[in-house]
TrEMBL record:
Keywords: ATP synthesis, Hydrogen ion transport, Ion transport, Membrane, Transport. This is ATP synthase subunit delta. GO terms for molecular function: proton-transporting ATP synthase activity, rotational mechanism. InterPro entries: ATP_synth_OSCP/delta_N_sf, ATPase_OSCP/dsu. PANTHER family: ATP SYNTHASE DELTA CHAIN. The keyword Membrane applies.
């Protein structure tokens, strides 16, 4: 993950912590990150034929009803700096910071055979016991 994405995430984390709206930021960043994985979205953002001012207008109109004003400001800033394509990395870094603060570890269980719900719960319980943190 790029250092600059981590820096943006840290700044957002401090703002979210101060305002007590981490959950809102998580939701907003997920909306933005999922959009940034769309090839049409990336083509629009990366197009040198479209001026940043126009990109910002379109982004604000597209997201104004689905994310907070602060998140819209973030998108505008990133568009100005040609950094919108990094939204997914910023969202991932922000999620890591929130998880760390809450004492949550993320784990992915890989098995040669499909586990039953009971087996999966048993593995999660055992891992939780081993690491001493909540797993997600």
């Amino acid at each position: 993950m790029a250092l600059s994405a981590r820096r943006y995430a840290q700044a957002l984390f401090l703002i979210a912590e101060e305002n007590g709206d981490q959950d809102q930021w998580l939701a907003d960043l997920e909306v933005l990150a999922s959009s940034s994985r769309n090839p049409d979205f990336i083509a629009f953002i990366d197009s040198p034929k479209i001026e940043n001012v126009k990109k910002i207008e379109v982004l604000k109109e597209a997201f104004s009803k689905s994310i907070s004003d602060l998140a819209l400001n973030l998108v505008s800033l990133l568009a100005t700096r040609n950094y919108v394509a990094s939204l997914s990395s910023i969202a991932d870094a922000f999620q890591e910071l929130v998880d760390s603060e809450k004492g949550v570890e993320r784990a992915e269980i890989v098995s040669a055979v499909k586990l039953t719900e009971e087996q999966e719960k048993g593995v999660v319980d055992k891992l939780t016991q081993m690491v001493g943190k909540e797993l997600s």
